[in-house]
Design brief:
Layout (H helix, E strand, L loop, with lengths): L4 E11 L9 E5 L4 E15 L4 E9 L12 H19 L2 E3 L7 H9 L3 E3 L8 E4 L14 E4 L11 E5 L4 E9 L4 E8 L2
Parallel strand pairs: 1-5, 5-6
Antiparallel strand pairs: 1-3, 2-3, 3-4, 7-8, 7-10, 9-10, 10-11
């Protein structure tokens, strides 16, 4: 039986009061959609697609970035943690999944430079451009690379390719250029 495994990453907030707990600080809580006082752990899991379940793999406590003696940002901590584990993670699966917060250049570049694929929802401020596939003018000068900005509210249906369809959902794909990520990406859309 062949497994279909992917790696999942998600920081988890743990509420904690008091003043003496190591690592205590203000971290983002997804449940309350705001920063709260407590602890945070960065959790990696192995997701088995066929069994529709995830298995805990690794967790590490995040450092409080609000303290003056900590020179790393939260994103810097996440990247450092990933790079320490990258070789072992890649041995399990070449695919990493994380939420939209991580679809930033620094994190994406770190994952891709380790030879892994990265799957994430795009941020609301994603700046995308259609790739130009028409004929190029002859002569001097740079060739045309892009064919306009992608309006995520109104995707040009002539450019997308249908990948899957059933009674409930239709899935489309399109290769676009992400200005924020500084690379071409495979954009997957459904029910457009």
């Amino acid at each position: 039986m062949q497994c279909e495994l992917i790696i999942g990453f998600d920081p988890s907030f743990i509420s904690k009061s008091g003043k003496c707990t190591p690592g205590l600080g203000y971290f983002y809580s997804g449940c309350s959609s705001r920063y709260e006082k407590g602890l945070e752990i960065g959790c990696y899991s192995v997701i088995d697609v066929k069994q529709n379940t995830a298995y805990h793999l690794y967790a590490a406590q995040s450092k409080n970035t609000t303290k003056k003696n900590n020179d790393k940002t939260m994103m810097g901590q996440y990247i450092e943690q990933f790079e320490e584990l990258a070789k072992d993670l890649k041995a399990i699966s070449p695919v990493l999944v994380a939420d939209a917060y991580f679809s930033k250049f620094e994190y994406t570049h770190s994952v891709v430079s380790q030879g892994m694929e990265f799957i994430s929802r795009l941020r609301v401020d994603a700046n995308l451009r259609y790739l130009y596939n028409g004929s190029q003018k002859s002569g001097r000068g740079r060739k045309k690379k892009f064919a306009g900005k992608v309006n995520t509210k109104k995707i040009d249906k002539r450019r997308v390719k249908q990948m899957y369809e059933d009674e409930e959902i239709r899935v489309y794909s399109l290769i676009v250029n992400s200005v924020n990520l500084k690379r071409n990406i495979l954009l997957v859309l459904w029910n457009i």
